[in-house]
Amino acid sequence: MKPVDHPGPGGEEWRFGKVALKLGLVSPEELQEAVDAQEELRAAGIDTLIGDAMLDLRLITAEQCEQALAEQDRLFRLAGLVGRARGAPTVGWLVAGMIPALCHMPPSGVLAWSGAILLGFALSHGGALRWVGLGWLTSVVAPVLHPAAIAGSGSLLRGWRTHAGAALLGAALGLVPLPGVMHQAGPLFLLAAGALALSGRGR
Amino acid sequence: MTTAGPFIHSGQTNRKIMVMVLVSLSPSLVAALVRYGAGAGLVILSALAGAWLAELLLDREQAFDCTALVTGAIFALLLPPTAPWWLGLLGGAVAIGLGKHAFGGLGRNLFNPAALSRVLLMGVLPVYFFSTTWTIGGLTRASPLAKESGAIGPTITELLAGNTPGALGQAAPHAVLVGGLLLVLLRAIDWRIPLTYLAAVAFLALVLPASARIEGHAPWLLGNPLLHLVGGGSLVVAFFMLTDPVTAPFSPSGRIVFAIVAALYTMLVRFYTPYPDGAALAVLLANATVPLIDRATLARASGDAPLGATVLSTDSAAP
Amino acid sequence: MRPFDAVFLALVASRCLDRPKRWWLVALAPLLAYGIGWYEPLGRFAMPLAALAAVALAPRWAPVGLLLVLPVYGTLIHSLGAAATWLGLDVVFDALLARLDESAITPRLRGWPIRLAIAGILYYTLLPLAYL
Fold first, then answer.
1. Domain boundaries, position A37
2. Of B138, B276, B300, B319, which one has the greatest count of Cβ atoms within 10 A?
3. Which of B7, B103, B267 to mutate to test the interface with C (most CBs of C within 10 A)?
């Protein structure tokens, strides 16, 4: 599936009013009428949803409301399926950088992994198969390494920034003694979520 | 825009519902105070304070509608009486901050905030939740659901009197039951959820085969429905957590499926993993399946309760 | 790495990539890893072969398949469990994201932070399964 100009999180196309408009359930004038009614209610301190306003104004029926909700759900699902939302490269290198810590690699393994990830920048444009090859070669040099650790993390990376970021994070998490609980995916995800939120790079 | 789920207008304001829930929680809180003393009081107060302060910080307007206090009180019932005060404070704040406001605030949370906070803190700070032996009032005993050495089988009298180690919510099962039934009588919660959950837990306690974790360790866990109903967090979960209208399915049939999912995971954890109890975990898993359950059942449900008659949100986010 | 951790890592990695048409084939990766590892004559070639097989299952989701062959699966049940958990999680995660009201979420948490937080919550929720 190609990344389309999809209604990704933060976009507008998935909004109930836009969906109803797209499905032909309301006209632009009717949508504006509902928005105005919603604004009036909000001004009066009543937080009403646009779908509720349309129902109250009898612009749509219950069945049409359900139809729009189903379409909205489909659009959201599409956004989830398309996946390559903004911020994906950042998350890609965060995930790749977690692998040495999660695999309990010894220091030699972490260094070999980081080296391979950096070297991979020059070799990886051919995609996953090249990464598997690189993983094989590196695991010959450092037999403690699983080739899939390099291939899996490396094939998530695109561009020198993501390679450098993954190599640095992987070395940091792999070489710095961490509490036992930090060698699990769950706490690392929560930390990454916090870091992305604080940095504002999560979208 | 309606993505947080359709809502039926119940005719009851959010604040009124919250007060009802707080009243129904009070017997359990008082029982915990009586049973465990000032230590429990400190835990309860800190959880309430943590939740309320977080609410005040993140949404000043909602801080006075009692939702944060309900979340804090439920979270307190999930804490062991041996918990330090700061754990209550932190947990209450996490429940409101991460469990509620991170997802967009009242009515938009995907997971029960109290359960979410309990499970995350149990993951990050397991030492405060996984002690198999508890020293309360000078007496050291093991939790009745513990599967490690040191655990001993409780008697029925002990179970019903809440005279076994466990979370604050297990101090007096009859107090939880009274509060829960009050909510059912006041029609603040859907009776189907607690009834289905408790019935499924009892049924599974009778029919599930033993595992190596039980045999030779805690054989009393087998074929003992009463133990599984009152010896863990089942009652609190059944009446005060699974019934949260925001994180439960919309349709009656969906709610029955939801309660069965929760019961299955509760018992899976109790029977086949080293965890002493899976009730709070089961709440989160059941919450996670709600969008799927709704998707499967909503069309049927809309026949029962037409969306046209709806969709003015009550903003009810509790219990 | 435990199979349980690999499943979650693969889940998040899959959200960074376009979904292939036969995405569900990736669920076979744990079974392949177990099968290839179990066949002793392959010796030291077992791991590289498993990596190649994982890529062949769904080239566009190669990182996902590779992450799923990373752990050591002790028994067939473990590999089946990992495959089932991954498939189930994939569906549940999508459904949760669809229910999420992104417009109501504070801007800093929108997008990946809230997605990762949900993955973390699901991780702790299902953690007991790692001990089955």
1. 16-82
2. B319
3. B103
